[in-house]
Amino acid sequence: MRILQLTDLHIFAAPNVRLKGIPTRESLQDVVVHVLATEQPFDHVIITGDHTHDERPESYQAVRDILAPWSDRLSQIPGNHDDRAVLRQVFSDRVARSDSDRINFQRTAGDWLLLGLDTHVPGEVAGNIEERQIAWLTERLSASDQPSVALFLHHPPVEIGSEWMDAIGLNGRELLQEVVKNDDRIRLICCGHVHHEFQSTIGNAAVFTTPSTGIQFDPAGATPNFAADAPGYRVIEFDGADFETHVGRLPTVKYVPDND
Ligand SMILES: [Fe+2]
């Protein structure tokens, strides 16, 4: 079983708009071409939020078009740069309609239960986990006898040691940390939001953040800073109860971000 994680696409409705000097649509297209060239089959392709930068239907449609090679295997959760209603509308065949306003997902991959948790708060950059999300998570955990569990969410449930990024992190993360510490089956947590690669642990779980398919962040300093690193993605491979994961990147830095 193999999974592709794509995160922080930040697509605009107009094709050539740049985010701090990075043409995010072209960059996503380059990442897709690069991944396809590796000829790895994926059982699931998981997008951990920030599909678009402007939250417009045309932008979500562009994401849909670019990710067409995997349109039958997408799983999605929103980030801060997402609009739940538009995401549901454009990906109506992939995103579950429920009476909850949250966009969570549940999938399986071999021995693994995959759970996506929506941390989006309309109008806010930081995310939030509240009791209702914890209740959804614990219910799914207790209903499953899968021996291993991986969680996917936009905002990392740990501090990443970056003054400016930790200031826009996940509120309520202690609630989620408690659930993870109390269930040894949760072995893997994959996130986005911070636009760079980082690793930590909670309980029995390894926590990973993944580079953006577009602009890369520099965690240093107290204010936002952008790094001249190549756009990337994450591959996760499950072998029974074991997993292996690595970040892949475009081979060259085609665009340097504008820090002015
Ligand atoms: Fe982002």
Task: Give a description of the structure.
This protein is α/β, with parallel strands linked by helices and 260 residues long. It has a single domain, classed as Purple Acid Phosphatase, chain A, domain 2 (4-Layer Sandwich), CATH 3.60.21. A 6-stranded mixed beta sheet has the order 6-7-9-11-13-12. The chain binds fe (ii) ion.
Strand tally, please?
17
Distance between the termini: 43 Å
Ligand names: fe (ii) ion
Number of helices: 6
Main sheet overview: 6 strands, mixed
Secondary-structure arrangement, i.e. CATH architecture = 4-Layer Sandwich
Tell me the strand percentage band.
Answer: 25-35%
Strand ordering within the main sheet: 6-7-9-11-13-12
Per CATH, the class reads Alpha Beta
* Helix content bin: 10-25%
EC number: 3.1.4.17
Keywords: Hydrolase, Iron, Metal-binding
Organism: Fuerstiella marisgermanici
Family: Belongs to the cyclic nucleotide phosphodiesterase class-III family.
What's a quick, concise take on this entry?
By secondary structure, this protein is of the alpha/beta class.
